[in-house]
Design goal:
Elements lengths: L2 H7 L3 E3 L12 E2 L3 E4 L2 E4 L8 E4 L3 E4 L2 E14 L13 E4 L3 E4 L2 H7 L4 E4 L9 E16 L4 E4 L2 E4 L1 E2 L2 H6 L1
Parallel strand pairs: 11-14
Antiparallel strand pairs: 1-7, 2-11, 3-4, 5-6, 7-8, 7-11, 9-10, 12-13
């Protein structure tokens, strides 16, 4: 039995398409609130076809949702740590989740007005803290195009489905 089949049998993985499985430290933890056409929704209540509000394109249809229980490094962002109401309340993200920064950090770290960086690149030990590895339910939201989403008041990246994955669906 392969790894994917073992995870399915153990009830540790479920997803909307059998060819998608979280394999990275990017995604959202249960309870993370995202902006949708129907208002703020916890990630665990989202399903394919839901329309997610994006920074770059307005509404974008959610193509797939993958979830798995994984051990991931957790990064805690204190409320307001990246600016006024960014995030709106304390928010925990996996270490590899890309976060869009559009403030002095982007200029200081990358010499540009905005940058997409891994959550763990923003750890300062005070307002953004590395909580270490945690066993958590991780949700990945897949779209047909790259998008910037709103999660708990932060601008973050959704996962992009390459054309070959879309054709297989």
């Amino acid at each position: 039995m392969n790894t994917k089949a073992r995870a399915l049998a153990a009830g540790k993985v479920s997803y909307s398409s059998p060819d998608v499985l979280p394999v990275s430290e990017a995604g959202f933890l249960a309870g993370t609130v995202l902006l949708t056409q129907d208002g703020e929704m916890p990630v665990e209540f989202l399903s394919p076809g839901d329309r997610i509000i994006t920074r770059d394109r307005g509404f974008a249809p959610l193509r797939r949702v993958a979830r798995a229980r994984q051990s991931v490094r957790a990064i805690r962002f204190a409320a307001g740590s990246l600016g006024n109401t960014r995030p709106e309340c304390d928010l925990v993200l996996p270490a590899g989740q890309p976060v869009l920064i559009r403030d002095w950090r982007a200029q200081a770290l990358f010499g540009t007005s905005q940058a997409m960086v891994r959550a763990d690149a923003l750890v300062d030990g005070e307002f953004v803290c590395d909580l270490g590895p945690r066993d958590m339910q991780l949700f990945q939201l897949h779209f047909d195009e790259p998008h910037v989403l709103y999660a708990g008041g932060l601008e973050v990246a959704g996962q992009y489905l390459p054309t070959s994955s879309r054709l297989a669906a």
